Amino acid sequence: MPAQPEAGSPALIVEGIFAGYGGGDVLRGVSLEVVQGGITCVVGPNGAGKSTLLRAVSGLMRPRLGRITLHGEPIVGKSPRDILKMGVVQVPQNHSLFREMTVRENISLGGYILTDRRLAERRLDHVLEMFPQVTQWLGQKAGSLSGGQQRLVEFARSLMLDPKMVVLDEPSMGLAPKVLKSVFDAIRMMNAQGKTILLVEQNARAGLRLSTHGVVLENGQVRLSGSGKEVLEHPEIGALYLGGAVTTGSNGGANGAGAGQDGEDGTGAVNGTASRAGR
Question: Which of 140, 60, 66 has the alpha carbon at shortest distance from 93?
């Protein structure tokens, strides 16, 4: 069997990619690393190129220049299906469940490329162990669930292929504040189970607090990268993207200067120029 990648080593490496639409580059020389076993959160204002970056990683867009590798194997030029087989699974921003199908059927579809039925059944059992709350919804139509419940089902479905990396595109988008904690708890749980996470999150403070590593995109370029804590507490980034500088007080908590405080679960609303850190 091939050696397992070491935690802390680069899982995904993006090197100098240029990519865009209609002849114009949205990404202009973007380079970053997604660390094995970590949670890497990408934040930035509207139009920064975050969605374009995820499309390039998933094979939905081919960069004009640059390289993307997963554990040393090139991704650029491969089809989305081939990248899926390599172990990269993406949960899109918009809800993607089949509303008239049951929750069980939707989760099972996550393993559609599995040819071994027994393996698919074992994977389903394992996924339900990870998401016990989903078990009580198995017979319901997916469309009957709340937005937060649907997001958890999408997370469960993404694990049917036992991916190496889970790509999450704005998982908190459109969800009520009271349900955000369960979504972020689920991301922590997936990471604790060994999944490397690449996260684009409009709730910048909560995303960075959740993450081991942070990247700020601005105008198609990397403005800053470092640990999640470093990016969260960077004075300039705090002022530009988080509604005020974030500092660590004597009690060890993160405080926002000139910004509304987050709740205990770290999922408070983001204020400032990038409060919708969008597309």
Answer: 60
Q: What is the mean pLDDT of each run of 10 residues along the chain (279 residues)?
A: 67 97 91 97 91 95 96 95 95 90 96 90 94 95 94 96 95 87 94 96 90 95 93 79 48 37 35 33
CA distances from 99 to 93, 117, 153 (A): 16, 24, 12
Structural domains in the chain, CATH included, are 10-225 (3.40.50.300)
pTM of the model: 0.82
Residue 143 and residue 107 in contact, taking contact as beta carbons nearer than 8 Å: no
Token pair, residue 147, equals 């937005």
The residues near 23 (Cβ < 8 Å, ≥ 6 apart) are none
CA distance 135 to 148: 15
Q: Are 233 and 246 in contact (CB under 8 A)?
A: yes
Q: How far is CA 65 from CA 80, 136, 160, in A?
A: 18, 47, 33
